[in-house]
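so i finally got all the pieces together for this one. its two components total, 277 residues if u count the protein bits. some of the lines might not be protein, just check the labels. i wanna see the whole assembly predicted at once instead of chain by chain like last time, that was a mess tbh
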Amino acid sequence: MYFTPSFVIIKPMTKTLFKSFLQNPQNILFDGEDPDEKVLYVLRRSFITNLGWLLLTAALVAIPWTFWNDILKILFNGTAAISPQFSTVLFLFWYLFTFGFFFQNFLNWFFNVYIISNKRIVDMDFYGLIYKRISESPLRNIEDVTSKINGTAGVIFNFGDVFIQTAAEKTEFEFSDVDNPSKIRDILSDLVTEIKMK
Amino acid sequence: MNISDFVIQLFTPAGFIQLMQFLTVFLEIVYIIFAFIVVRQVRLMNKSFQTGAAGLFTLIAFTHFFVAVGLVAISLLIL
């Protein structure tokens, strides 16, 4: 029996783990995917939009190393020395909370995806812990695609929104803060033209 | 000890630390609920959108949950 080193599995995974624009992704399946359906693109919010919570996580990691004694003094008003056991428990809880905060935000970014397959577009939204919404529309129903880049960060890092007008009950899809919105608009327009020509 | 003695005790340094220890354990127990919801959430997300990293996320979510449970156990033992 052969043993596969973990880096053999993890290395190719990390190549796609943090990407916000995946073309022809491998090993990806979504709920309701047809057997003859092929996922062409998986899009997420641009990675740069995670900067806020990443900086906050970095601050939460750094605080105990720099201000831990000051925090304890403020918290306990300098009136009594707390036991090393209690200090350790607080320290561990702080890092557990920080990790939970990081993981929760990462999951929200990772699983809020926009999927373009050869048959349809899918918008998967997970907000917080308990909200899940999945909308989809066949490519044939798409009528109009508009891309928009606004704001300084959007112009610098080339991310923005793509609005997709459909003839279905849900009339508009919005791919928010995606990388390279003009390219996505072009891809979608080409796919829709191709499918309507058939 | 009657209630007024107990309240007065809370305003002494030792009493205040005891109160904070109690609050910390309480928050840790609340955190276990959050960690459990994260486990369920990861399962739901993996079901909706399956990637090669599904196993990794499940492993992290379970580790996070068991560390949270372990922290409460440690707190109850040493505090």
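The radius of gyration of chain A is 22 Å.
DSSP finds five helices and nine strands in chain A.
anyway lmk what u think
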